[in-house]
Design a protein that fits this description.
heterodimer; A: alpha/beta; eight-stranded mixed beta sheet; two-stranded antiparallel sheet; B: alpha/beta; Rossmann fold; 7 helices; globular
């Protein structure tokens, strides 16, 4: 019997003050929950999503093929994050395009579609919005907050903004900020979108078009950086999509046809993405990635920044992840050590690059599973489960 | 932590409430013991995936790092005690790691198989590398890339200007203070930088 997921939505009338100085009010947050909240409300686990994911973290929608949540291999009954023991919450972030209020929705005062006028949101803003959702659900303290990549940044931010509300933070394949190279990749993706003639300064909805070309290219660039050189070579190598017989090389000698399998794969990924993802959301979320830097106002001193954290940490990185490399996770470990915080760190020797955080790897699953086993044990000791 | 080194014999050397870094902490049993029975806090360092999982499962902080890359993660004198229990013999950079141990820790405690234990000497006299309970491997498949003696280590420590606070042998879980280089399968050193 698979876990059945039921999307829900919560409305927030009161304005939420944003890092930029702007605010947003009368917004919805889409979320899902799995498992049962225990009597003392101590077993809640919040899952934070990365760039192109949503509140649909685990389980399936009845009657829908391939509707598994994006972290269904990690979260569910008997899985590493066991929904028989934990009450797991997935939330779609503000500005996203999967149900929570975003650029494709109307401004509550003007009734106009936000489009490019949707306020710039940050990791901190998302965390504040998530905290409000938990307030309404009556959850004061999280047994754990967990996320990968940009989701890991939210988990870290939770530990800093609400230290008294988090017992454990699980930060996977993440970083304390983006490097210049990483911002550069985001900027290329954004330029691809913004320079698409169908972008219309972000107000493409009223023109009845979508900047799909830009989105495709943005996705292609992103996808390259989520994989490793090795895994790409293993999967595609120099294979041609369809070798011609009239040349010994099999090449078409064309500059514009799809020649190599990798091209075909990237185009397919780009096409698929451009069908469902919103261009303004892409701009907003990549900007949130760029802006995240909890040490920025402390002269770059990460140790000083992480002094705010009171929870225990598990950090996980993957050896072939060059977009969020192990070195970046080690910086966070080091800062936590300097603050004498409880931290465990696993560096999984996986070939799949950044994508590894979404894939099945027994060592990875076991590390996270063991960590949550231990949390469950302390919950049982601390009171009624 | 190897089953060959008596956990209690090592734990006795660690002060109550100490902040401990255990290099090559294995499944975390020693740190678990120190946390539970001696009120210690700290971290283990391990490279092996299975050991990492075992530590996490028992609630021991563990960091997956390769000791051959040094201890750059750790600040000077940031631990009361740094342990290297049955770790030294696996390290390529054993001498660097010895200096690192006393840089990071106010005290270093090391334990390793003593190659000069008399059964090993006998074995060499008969022309063969020893295969014993303490050194159970054949010469061609041993993970122990450094074989040294109690006396050798004392000399290495002196050479590196380290102060030996205490040293003794361990045999069958008992301290050996008379002729440890000859009479004990395990050498134990407590050092300061």
């Amino acid at each position: 019997m698979p876990l059945i997921a039921t999307p829900q939505s919560m409305f927030f009338e009161a304005p939420l003050a944003l890092q930029s100085g702007a605010s947003i009010r009368a917004y919805h947050l889409a979320y899902e929950t799995y498992g049962t909240l225990n009597a003392d409300k101590s077993n809640a686990v919040l899952i934070c999503h990365a760039l192109n994911a949503s509140h649909h973290v685990a389980g399936v929608y009845p009657g829908q093929d391939k509707s598994e949540g994006w972290w269904d291999n990690m979260i569910g009954p008997g899985k590493a994050v066991d929904t028989n023991r934990f009450f797991v919450i997935g939330v779609n972030n503000l500005g996203s395009c999967f149900g929570s209020t975003g650029p494709m929705h109307a401004h509550p005062d003007t009734g106009e579609i936000y489009g490019a006028n949707f306020p710039v949101v940050t990791v901190e803003d998302w965390v504040d919005a998530q905290a409000r959702l938990l307030d309404t659900l009556g959850i004061q303290t999280l047994a754990a907050v967990m996320g990968g990549s940009l989701g890991g940044m939210q988990a870290l931010s939770w530990a800093l903004r609400y230290p008294e509300r988090v017992a454990h933070a699980v930060v996977v394949a993440s970083a304390p900020n983006l490097t210049a190279e990483n911002i550069a990749f985001n900027e290329v993706a954004r330029r691809a979108i913004v320079t698409d003639p169908d972008f219309h300064g972000g107000h493409y909805y009223k023109h009845g078009v979508v900047p799909q070309r830009g989105l495709r290219i943005a996705r292609m660039i992103g996808h390259i950086t989520y994989l490793s050189d090795d895994v790409m070579n293993e999967k595609f190598g120099r294979q041609l999509r369809e070798a011609v017989t009239h040349n010994a090389t099999g090449y078409r000698y064309s500059t514009q046809d799809v020649e190599f399998q990798i091209e075909s794969y990237l185009r397919y990924q780009g096409d698929k993405f451009s069908e469902y993802f919103d261009a303004n959301t892409y701009l907003l979320i990549t900007r949130a990635l760029d802006y995240f830097d909890p040490a920025r106002t402390l002269g770059g001193d990460l140790t000083a920044a992480l002094a705010q954290a009171a929870c225990k940490f598990l950090l996980v990185s993957f050896t072939t992840d060059w977009r969020f490399s192990p070195a970046r996770s080690r910086e966070m470990v080091r800062a936590l050590l300097d603050n004498k915080r409880d931290v465990s760190y696993a560096e999984i020797d996986a070939p799949h690059g950044h994508d590894a955080f979404l894939l099945n790897d027994a060592r990875y699953m076991n590390v996270v599973g063991s960590y949550f086993d231990n949390i469950a044990r302390t919950l049982t000791m601390g009171g009624p489960a | 932590m190897s089953e060959h080194v008596n956990m209690h014999a090592i734990a006795r050397l660690v002060p109550e409430g100490a902040r401990v870094l255990d290099l090559g902490c294995g499944d975390g049993a020693l740190l678990d013991y120190l946390q539970t029975h001696r009120g210690c806090t700290g971290y283990g360092v391990e490279i092996d995936d299975v050991n990492i999982q075992a530590c996490i499962k028992r609630g021991v902080n563990v960091l997956q790092l390769n000791l051959d890359e040094g201890l750059t993660m750790f600040a000077d004198q940031s631990f009361d005690v740094v342990l290297q229990i049955d770790t030294l013999q696996h390290l390529r950079n054993a001498e660097v790691m010895l200096r690192e141990t006393v840089r990071v820790g106010r005290t270093g405690i090391l334990a390793f198989p003593n190659f000069a234990h008399w059964p090993n000497r006998l074995s060499i006299l008969t022309g063969s590398m020893p295969v014993t309970k303490r050194l159970p491997y054949q010469w061609y498949d041993t993970p122990n890339i450094r074989v040294g003696t109690y006396a050798d280590f004392a000399q290495l420590a002196t050479q590196n200007h380290l102060k030996i606070i205490d040293s003794f042998g361990l045999q069958e879980g008992q301290e050996v203070r008379g002729w440890p280089n000859l009479m004990a399968g395990t050498a134990v050193f407590k050092l300061k930088g």
